[in-house]
Design brief:
The protein is built from 7 helices and 6 strands, in the order ααααββββαββαα. By secondary structure, the chain is mostly helical. The chain has a two-stranded antiparallel sheet. The chain has a two-stranded antiparallel ribbon with strand order 3-4. The chain is extended and about 75 Å long. Bound molecules: zinc ion.
């Protein structure tokens, strides 16, 4: 009995993906992602403040992604963003096809399952590059104690320094994770015209990186001239009616 159980364990270990985490714990048993503490007193104000913070993360990621375009650092974060968005969707689709509800899926379904597990580990392996460490800073002049988490330095990371704020690859990833944790990741999108630059779609209708891209997009739309002419006609008609009323 004992022997067979050892064999089973060994087989299970052999199947296990190569990624070795430095911790046995999962995100279910973790400290929360670092987040700025909300300062407002009332619930409504806190809600607004939360929105502003989400905007800050979104704006930060988009500025970083657009600036790092074409670098390896930028490519790494883009693929992380895409996988963070795709993996939960693919898991959910996979679960919907569970063999219990769809008998006959068998081996193919299990193969997909193994691939999803691999992707899950691969994602965690990528994330494990971004180590943040607790940091204490005493501000001598204001006699103020400040606490925070700072990422390790890495010269391969694309980094933006603006005033007192540094955004490295690790900071961009942390912002992406915070957006993902609140369900806001899909707001970090590619511009619908150039498909190259990134947009933070704080509102659903934010689709383009610039006024130029918006114009290009609609100019290429097949019925653009037709719609424009129609709008013009409607506008002239309205004007006519308004004038008629005024005169009458
Ligand atoms: Zn664009």
């Amino acid at each position: 009995m004992a022997t067979s159980s050892v064999v089973t364990n060994k087989q299970q270990q052999a199947k296990r993906p190569v990624f070795k985490s430095k911790s046995r714990r999962t995100a279910v048993d973790a400290q929360p992602l670092p987040q700025k503490t909300l300062q407002s007193d009332t619930a409504t104000e806190r809600k607004n403040e939360e929105k502003r913070l989400a905007l800050t993360d979104g704006a930060r990621v988009v500025i970083w992604l657009n600036a790092s375009h074409g670098t390896k650092s930028g490519q790494r974060v883009v693929s992380l963003r895409d996988e963070l968005a795709a993996l939960p969707k693919d898991w959910a689709n996979h679960n919907r096809l569970a063999p219990l509800t769809h008998p006959g899926l068998g081996e193919g379904w299990r193969k997909d399952q193994r691939q999803l597990v691999q992707r899950h580990h691969a994602l965690n392996e990528l994330l494990s590059r971004y180590a943040f460490r607790p940091r204490y800073t005493f501000r001598v002049f204001t006699e103020e104690s400040v606490f925070g988490l700072v990422p390790d330095d890495d010269r391969r990371w694309f980094t933006i320094e603006k005033g007192n704020e540094t955004t490295s690859e690790a900071d961009a990833v942390m912002s992406l994770l915070r957006l993902a944790s609140t369900g806001d990741l899909s707001k970090i999108r590619r511009c619908e015209a150039c498909r190259d630059r990134w947009v933070f779609a704080a509102k659903r209708n934010y689709r383009f990186c610039s006024a130029d891209c918006r114009e290009t997009f609609y100019a290429k739309a097949p019925d653009y001239h037709e719609r424009k002419a129609k709008n013009q006609r409607a506008y002239r008609q309205k004007l006519k009616q308004a004038n008629a009323k005024f005169i009458g």
